[in-house]
Amino acid sequence: MKEYAIETKDLKIYYGKKEVIKGINLRIPKNTIFTIMGPSGCGKSTLLRSFNRLLELNMDAKIEGEVLIFGKNIYGEDVDPISIRRKVGMVFQYPNPFPHLTLYDNIAIGLKLNNLVKSKEEMDKRVRWALEKASLWDEVKDRLYEYPASLSGGQKQRLVIARALALKPKILLMDEPTANVDPVGTKNIEKLLFELKKDYTIVLVTHEPAQAARTSDFVGFLYLGKLIEVGPTKYIFEKPKNELTEKYLTGSLV
Amino acid sequence: MKIKRLDMFQIITLPAVIFVFLLFILMLSVYFYNALPAFFREGLDVYFKNTWQASEIPSKEYYGLAAAIWGTVYSSIIGVLIALPISVAYSIFVIDYAPKKLKNIFIIISDMMAGLPTIIYGIWGAFILVPFLQKYIMIPLYKNLSFIPIFSYPPTTGYSYFSAGVLLGIMITPFASAIIREAYQMVPFTYREAAISLGLTRYEATKILLGYIKPAIVSGMILAFGRAVGETVAVSLVIGNSFNMSVSLFAPGYTISSLIANQFGNAYIYRHMLPVLYAGGLALFIIGLIVNVIGIYLLMRWQKNVRI
Lengths: 254, 308
What we know:
The structure holds two protein chains of two kinds. Chain A is of the alpha/beta class. Helix content of chain A is about 35%, strand content about 25%. In chain A, a hairpin with a 2-residue loop joins strand 9 and strand 10. In chain A, helix 6 (about 155-165) runs parallel beside helix 7 (about 185-195). The longest helix of chain A is centred in the C-terminal third of the chain and has 15 residues, at about 185-195. By secondary structure, chain B is an all-alpha fold. Chain B has one domain: MetI-like (MetI-like fold, Orthogonal Bundle). In chain B, about 75% of the residues lie in helices and about 5% in strands. Chain B has helices spanning about 10-40, 45-50, 65-95, 100-115, 120-145, 160-185, 190-195, 200-210, 215-230, 235-240, 255-265, 275-305, and strands at about 50-55, 60-65. In chain B, strands 1-2 form a two-stranded antiparallel ribbon. In chain B, strand 1 (about 50-55) and strand 2 form a beta hairpin. In chain B, helix 3 (about 65-95) packs parallel to helix 6. Chains A and B meet through helix 2, helix 3 and helix 6 of A and helix 7, helix 8 and helix 12 of B.
């Protein structure tokens, strides 16, 4: 049996009594970019947040079914959500580095509080490593002790990526990472995604079909809480089997 | 001909600004003018000497506000130190942990307490709080730790800086927590998500978010300190009203505002007392000014770097 990075089994999510994710079975292979696309409000972000148990911050949210990360159900009884979140990093729609922490501390904070790094030299090394991984090192190496306010939107977002990478996760969840970034920044981030794919499994959420086409290996089309169609990007964009997918891609889905 | 168009609100709001500014200048100058005789007679001793000799023979009168200034600052600092952790904790609890239905009740209670007439706190402080503190805190501390200077004064009456500080702490907590709570509630949800997504515990995430609202905590504390400095009746009921200057927490003391309130009625009997009381009022202005300048400086330094 092949082990997937993420696999969901009949995953259902409710907000109160409202069912927002309606039974999803999904398999995301390792070291790929998997895009979940769909119109606003279809449940993309909710689905994504069930992969690192971030949804638990919302007290109304209720989850049924299973989410397997490398074969292990993260909603099992003996699972510590904190260990899951270290393995599954996340980047958000709004570039959200902590504005009151320096660039250095933004990267270091997760490592420091999780006690993952023992010495100052190790921390320096890890911070540099994460920033290099996120292709941000050259731009910020002289101002590590400044605050994120001095960065552009795209740089902030790469800082957030570095912050997530610093914990050395296996999977990176990205919730519309370029929605608040200008075109140049977007291009840089998309380029970075290709780099990261070698070491990480990336789950990207977007409402832009074009971005899905540019970046991903696989695409899943989510509509009103249901996974309408999944497949290799090429097939989905060239010959969608489902009428809804075709309508969405041509912009005629209301 | 072109007439510069004035915004309607500019016309309406400008007088209010001018009025407030003039009022400030007017009050400051009235206090300064009325305090002048004290400065001419005693110089700066009026602030730096601790003495209070009221006499019907004017040449024997001599006054110094040092004890009252010290008492004001000391008891207010104690109050702020007590209010800081409680109001932060209260804010976190109300926003993060209180059950939805109880949340508003907690908010209403604390907001109501912030607006209670201070005499209510004063009476309660004098009859309930002081005996309680004396019996359960001051006496045990004095018995066991009196070799430490701050515990070295025998708490015979209980009326002391400590009692005043605790009472002030209780009085300003609802006020400070209202400011901190509002700020804490405004923290964008995405920062909480970010912290949690890094594998931090709820406690660690909350600590980061508190860093984010540090300016609100600072300004809440400064405003609370301002309130504590100006508090009159309640403090005068529990501080002991004696011209004493000591670091010992359990010693009685005085504050400027309670001194003014207590002495104002009979100041006319003496020739030189009234200007000294005005000088005391001026000292309150100055303390308020210093505290606010420090607060604004801290906030500006913070904002310069951080800009959210």
